[in-house]
Amino acid sequence: MTKLTHLDDQGKAQMVDVSLKAETHRRADARGRIYMAPATLALIEEGGVKKGDVFSVARLAGIMAAKKTADLIPLCHPLPLQNIQVELSCNTAESCVDIFATANLYGRTGIEMEALSAVSIAALAIYDMCKAVDRGMRISDVRLTHKSGGKSGEFNAD
């Protein structure tokens, strides 16, 4: 079993020292969904949500979250993101919004948490904007789908 790197020799949580790691291009993709009533999804598609353009707000929230991940997740390194993209689409067949984020940087440590934060916060922004009409929305399936760069190599989800 691989040893968790956020633990020191005494088993205490620590921030990992990445100062000797090589800088490489690193990319992470994450996705998730927020399920809702068909009528709520139709409101989003029609631009009928009273709080405004749901996708614009959710996209901005996801980008901002990725930039602030180190402030949200203990022991995460603050990273100089070169790019973060958040894409949203209505999925009428599943009655949900599909959320996809890609984060890129040239650095010494991974970027998975930034992509995952972007997806999670974009979903929460959608919930916040639509909760007046649908409190039963469900955020689901948030996961890493791709990771490249660094010594651990490439990861692609099934």
> What structural class should be given to the helix and strand makeup?
alpha+beta
Q: Treating each run of at least 4 consecutive H or I residues as one helix, how many helices? A: 4
Q: How many domain regions?
A: 1
Instruction: Give Rg in angstroms.
Output: 17 Å
Q: How would you name the CATH homologous superfamily? A: Molybdopterin cofactor biosynthesis C (MoaC) domain
CATH architecture grouping: 2-Layer Sandwich
Instruction: Output the helix-strand order.
Output: EHHHEEHEE
CATH class: Alpha Beta
**Would you count the extended β strands for me?**
5
Helical residues, percent = 25-40%
CATH topology: Alpha-Beta Plaits
What proportion strand? 25-35%
| Average pLDDT | 90
**Morphology:** elongated
- End-to-end CA span: 22 Å
Poorly predicted residue ranges: none
Observed structural traits:
single chain; alpha+beta; Alpha-Beta Plaits; five-stranded antiparallel β-sheet; 4 helices; 5 strands; molybdenum cofactor biosynthesis; MoaC
